[in-house]
Amino acid sequence: MSRHAALLTSLAFVPLTLGLVGVGGDQPPLHELVTLGLAGLLTLAQLMMLLGGRSLAKGVVSVVMLPLLLALASYALPEYWVTLESWDAMSHGLAKGMTLEAWRPALLTTLSLILVAVLIVTHSQSTLGGPLLLIMAVLLSAQGLLDAAGSGAPLLRTAAGLWSTLSLALLLTGLSVAALPGWRLHAAPLRRALVPSLTLVLAVLLLWYHQKNVTERELHGTVAAEARQLGQRFTREVQDHLTAVERFANVWTLFDAPPSQEEWSRQATLYHRDFRYLLNIAFVDPESRLTRVYPPSEINLQVLGARLFDAQPAGREAVSRALFEQRIGRTDVIMLLQGVPGIIHYLPILLDERRTLGAVAMVIGLPMLAETLFSEVDSQHFGLVLSQGGQVLASRTPDTRLAPWQHQAQLDVAGTPLLLSVQPSHARLLQRLPRHPVVTLITGLTLAYLLYLVLHGYTRLARQHRRVRDTNRVLRREIRMRSQLQEEVEWLARHDELTRLPNRRLFMEALEANAVLRPLSVLICDVDHFKRINDHQGHLVGDRYLVHLGQIGRELIESTGGLFARYGGEEFVACLPRVDAVRALEIADTLRRQLLDAELQHHDGQRLTASIGVVTLVDGPLDVAVIMQAADDALYRAKAEGRNRVKAAPPLVIAERA
Length: 658
Ligand SMILES: Nc1nc2c(ncn2[C@@H]2O[C@H](COP(=O)(O)OP(=O)(O)OP(=O)(O)O)[C@@H](O)[C@H]2O)c(=O)[nH]1
What we know:
By secondary structure, this protein is α+β, with helices and mostly antiparallel strands. It is about 60% helix and about 15% strand. It has helices spanning about 1-10, 15-20, 30-50, 55-75, 85-95, 100-105, 105-120, 130-150, 160-185, 185-250, 260-275, 300-305, 310, 315-325, 365-375, 425-430, 435-495, 505-515, 530-535, 540-560, 580-595, 625-640; strands at about 280-285, 290-295, 330, 335, 340-350, 355-365, 380-390, 390-395, 405-415, 415-425, 520-525, 565-570, 570-575, 610-620, 645-650, 650-655. Strands 1, 2, 3, 4, 5 and 6 form a six-stranded antiparallel β-sheet that branches. Strands 11, 12, 13, 14, 15 and 16 form a six-stranded mixed β-sheet that branches. A four-stranded antiparallel β-sheet has the order 8-7-10-9. The longest helix is centred in the first third of the chain and has 65 residues, at about 185-250. It is rod-shaped and about 185 Å long. It starts with a helix and ends in a 5-residue tail after the last strand. The chain binds guanosine-5'-triphosphate. Guanosine-5'-triphosphate (GTP) binds next to strand 11, helix 19 and helix 20. It catalyses: 2 GTP = 3',3'-c-di-GMP + 2 diphosphate.
C-alpha cells in the first residue's frame, strides 16, 4: 500500500513541474509560483515520511508552515491590528517592491496546504483527525475552484491555479492511500466522529461563503455610494459657484459703462480664488469681443481682444444668447481659445429690458476641473476617468493594481453632464474588507476538528470501557464461583455430605467451645445391625435410613440447645451443654423411641433400632478422650445388654491436673 501511496504522491511532481515552467499560459505570477513551491515541498516531505526519513520530513514541513501561517494571519487579523501596509512592508523585506498580494497563496489553498502539512506530520492518524483533515482539505480545494469559476473577479483570491490544485489533489490521494489501512481498523469510532464533524464543516463553508459574498457586496455598495456622493458634492459646488458668478454679473448692472481692467480684476479676484477650476472670468462686450480677463495670465492675455463670433464658432450660440436674448448661455465641452478643452458660461449684464452692457464669461478649463475633482480623491488608491458620451476627457491612473470594480458618478458641471468613473485600488479595498468571514471559516474548521477529536476519543474510551466492564463481569462471576466452592469446601470440612449434619470435627469444636459449661452431657448413638440393611436392602436404603435418623436426631437435639453430629459410619453423637445426667438420659431415650417410631424396617419387618451411650461431665476440666471413652463404654453396654436401649455412664468428675 505504501508503494502505491509513494507512486501517487510522486505523480504530484508532474503538474508541479508543468506549473513552474508555465505550460499552457504565460509565466505564472509569483503567488502561484509560491503555492507550487510550497505544494512541492509538502510532496517531498510526504515521500520522506513514506520512505522513513521522518525527522527530515518534519523539518521540511516546519519550513513550509512558516509562510503558510503568516499568510493565514494576514487573512484573519483585523486591519486595526496589523495593517495591510505593515504586511506589505514585511514583504518588502523579502524582496524590494514585493507586496503581500504578490506572494500570498490564495485563502482556501493556504488552509488546504496547512491541513496537508498537519496530515503529513501526524501520519494521517485517525485518532488525530486524519480523515476529517483530509476531507476538509479536499472540500476547501474544491470550494476554491468553484469560487474561482463562479463569480468572475472576486476581491479576495480564494483558489490557486490549475497546476497547484492538480498537484494538491494528487498529494491528497497519496496521503489517503497511505492512511486507508489504518483507518479501516477504526471504522466504527471513525464514522461516529466523522459524520457530525463533517456536517459542521459543511455548515461552516456555507456560512463563510454567504458572509464573504455579503461583505463584498456591502463594500461594493459603500464604495459606489462614496463615488455618487463625490459626484453630487462636486455638482453642488459647481452650482454654488455658478450662482455666485450670477451675483458677480449682477454687480455690473449697476454700472452703465463697461468695467475697467482694474475694476474687473478687483471684483473677479475673489471668485477666481475660490473656484480653482475657472480658467478665467472675462468680460465680453456686445460685439462679442473679449475686453477684460482675469487672471491676466499669459495665455489669458493672448485671447484679449478676440471677437468670439469669429474666433470661437462652437460657442457662438451661447454667447449670442447672453448678448442678444438676455439669457444665460452655455457651451458644451469645446476647444477653448487657450488651447485646452473647457466649458463656457455666458451671463448677461443687463442695462435695461432690451439692452445689455455685455456678458460675463465664466470659463471652466477641463484639465483644471479634472485636477480639482481628482484632488478630492486619494491619488494613491483610486483610478479616475472623466468622460462625456464615451469620450475620455481626463483620467488618472495610480501605479497600484486596481480592483475589478468600477463605480460611476454622474456630474452636472453647470448644466453639462459628465461621467466620473472611480476605480479603487485592490489594496485599498482589501484594507476595508471585513475579516469576520475568514475568522468564521478558521474558527469553524477548528471547532469541527476539536469536535472530531472529542467524539473519536469518547467513542474509543466508551469501547475500552465496555471491554473492561465485560472483563470485570467475567472476573466477578469467576470470583463468585470460587468463593462458592470455597464455602462448600469449608462446609464439607465440618459437615457430613450425606446427612448434612455437622461431622466429627465440628462436634469436637462444639465440645471445646462449651468446655467450661457444667454439666456437659454427650450421647453416642449407634444403629443396631445396620450392616444387614446394606446387605439385604442395599446401600441406598441404608443411606436413606441414615439421613432419616439424622433428621430426627437434629430436630430433637437442637431443640434442647445441643449439637447433633455424625461421628462416622452409622454412629451419631450429641453434645448437650448445661444438660445434667437425668435430662440427658431422657433425651437419649426420646431419640431411641423416635427412631423406633420412624418405622424404618429391616428386610424381615423388624424395626430399626439404635443403642445409645450417655455420659455427663459434672465437674472438672474437659478431657474429650475421657468423655468419649466413657460414652463409648456406655454404648458398648447398651449393645451388650441386647441393643435398642440407652445406657448411662456414671456421672463423670475429672480431676484437675496438677
Ligand atoms: N449404606 C451405608 N452404610 C454404611 C455407611 N457407613 C457405614 N456403613 C455400614 O454400616 C455397617 C456397620 O456395621 P457394623 O459395624 O458391623 O455394625 P452393625 O451391623 O450395625 O452391627 P452392630 O453395630 O453390632 O449392631 C457396615 O456394613 C458399613 O458398611 C454409609 O454411609 N452408608
